[in-house]
Amino acid sequence: MSFKKIATVAGLALGSLVSAQSNAHHAFGAEFDANAPLTLRGDVIRIEWVNPHAWFHIEVTKEDGSKEAWRIEGGTPNTLLRRGINKRSIAIGTEILVDGYWAKDRTNSANGRNITLANGKKMFMGSSGTGAPEDGADTGR
Amino acid sequence: MNPIKLALTVLLLSVLAGCGPSEQTASPTEQAGSSPFKLSGDVKHIMQWVLDPAVDGVWDSAGSIITAAGTRELAPTTDEGWLAVEHSAAVVAASGNLLLMPGRAVDDEGWRNISQGLVEAGLLAQAAAKNQDSDALFDAGGQIYRVCKACHSVYVQGDEASDLL
């Protein structure tokens, strides 16, 4: 697959617009669907470097050319820092590929597992021990 | 044995007797029944009505929002704002002690360690807010989350596990 601005949602239709941030300290299972893996490709438009989870917002360009915003939950800032990701690691406007799991309420929200940059570099962006599926992305750190 | 040594020996034996297994294994209900505390809510109430709003007050006051327009820091910019965060952090610390009250603790060492960890993390946040140190407040917020996660990984099971964290 070429690195074009497309979003591929595995077996699922795209949802509605990004909702307001819900309660930030929920377990994976309360907010995200382990049976709804998805892959999103888009430009980073906003980073929330906050506790208890960092959030990466991306703008996805759909096949018809329209754009929609998605918000991707990452691990805790401390966890990301231990993996070498800080709030400046991904510049605004950077195109990224995100593997994760869709929100149960089917808003444009997902729990991120891996981020892949245009140069192929992959980074685990999730947290351990949140109840997320053991899909191999989590190295246990 | 001289009288002073005898008195000290009796005192030591009394203290040791007071730390016997029968007291350490008293159930939470038994603890509550013999204490001067009157429980005003269970652990879930403490979480939802006391700790959660307070910890949000800490978490929402530290960190950065980065967009194409620039970076917005979430730390307070006024003395009043910092005082509000200090208040929230103090409630977080006090929540740890509330969890230690007889009738709430579900076991001994593990619960005590985590509850004391919450007190310590809350005090770190409180000191950071008092010093108006945004970096220290952010770190303390991370420490609070680690305590929360450690607790939930042990004590929150089944369906309720998906309600929190």
Give a topology summary:
The complex is a heterodimer of chains A (141) and B (165).
Chain A: H1 28-31, E1 32-50, E2 55-61, E3 67-73, H2 77-82, E4 95-103, E5 109-117, E6 122-124
Parallel strand pairs in A: 3-5
Antiparallel strand pairs in A: 1-2, 1-4, 2-3, 4-5, 5-6
Chain B: H1 3-18, H2 21-24, H3 28-33, H4 43-59, E1 63-67, E2 70-73, H5 79-99, H6 109-130, H7 134-155
Antiparallel strand pairs in B: 1-2
For this entry, give a set of tags.
heterodimer, A: mainly beta, OB fold (Dihydrolipoamide Acetyltransferase, E2P), five-stranded mixed barrel, about 5% helix, disordered N terminus, B: about 160 residues, Four Helix Bundle (Hemerythrin (Met), subunit A), two-stranded antiparallel sheet, 7 helices, 2 strands, about 65% helix, about 5% strand
In brief, what are we looking at here?
By secondary structure, chain A is mainly beta. Helix content of chain A is 7%, strand content 38%.
Characterize the structure shown.
The complex is a heterodimer of chains A (141) and B (165). Chain A has 2 helices and 6 strands. By secondary structure, chain A is mainly β. Chain A has a domain of 97 residues: OB fold (Dihydrolipoamide Acetyltransferase, E2P) (Beta Barrel), CATH 2.40.50.140. Chain A has a 5-stranded mixed beta barrel with strand order 1-2-3-5-4. Chain A starts with 27 loop residues before the first helix and ends in a 17-residue tail after the last strand. Chain B has a single domain, classed as Four Helix Bundle (Hemerythrin (Met), subunit A) (Up-down Bundle), CATH 1.20.120. In chain B, 65% of the residues lie in helices and 5% in strands. Chain B contains 7 helices and 2 strands. Chain B starts with a helix and ends in a 10-residue tail after the last helix. In chain B, 28% of the residues are buried. About 12% of the residues of chain B have low confidence. Classes of the chains: A mainly beta (141), B mainly alpha (165).
